[in-house]
């Protein structure tokens, strides 16, 4: 008989976590090696990078603990058996895992909203809806974790049924808000990039450096994050067993996708300030940067304060 859970999803998550770890170390090295970066900006970036990484790593670590304890219980003569252990999580593992998972999604959504706000010249009307969706999702996440823990701890059938029903209802709303936030910010950032790319080619303005249009859209607009989140939500709604693969992948992608944006900017590979500020694009114009640098990478550092 096939196992009740796709245990290989743990290996898949660890592979993504390994990729995430390597990218994180490279990003930290680039941030630290930037001598002209203000000290406060370095600390803020490092804290953001490490916070997201800790959340993703905690999720994969708890999965390892969950599976290893299930195997250990199965090997005991008086153990409950592998099937029971795999389908009955400990309350603290479930609560902690859900907390880090939701926290990682919240930080990712905040960074994408921030990026969208910067790209669109700090115009608050552009990001009002994503901000409201993100804040609402954060509140719902608290109720979701609480309902899940209560349902697992309670011995009363009525309480378990009630909290389980609330968990399902709130989870649907929560992930709908998260999908709305990611798709909206992805669309707005992609639209801005396409407009700038088109106008730069048409007028010959902007930087003289070449930018891969596909790579720019994939990284800057966090398309990979939106795809992984949407896949997870669809499989979760369909009650597909492969939802465990999607969930574990998204737990890592929620930290990796924002990290790629930070890496691109820190490495000086994103568009310089004047490209986003072009007057001929017919779009919103950035305010001038407060500081300039003589070297070619300085314009990239002024682009965002992430």
UniProtKB/TrEMBL annotation:
The residues that cross the membrane are 15-32, 44-67, 91-114, 126-145, 173-196, 217-237, 249-267
Q: Does the keyword Membrane apply?
A: yes
For this UniProt record, the keywords arranged alphabetically read as follows:
Membrane, Transmembrane, Transmembrane helix
Specify the protein name.
Answer: Uncharacterized protein
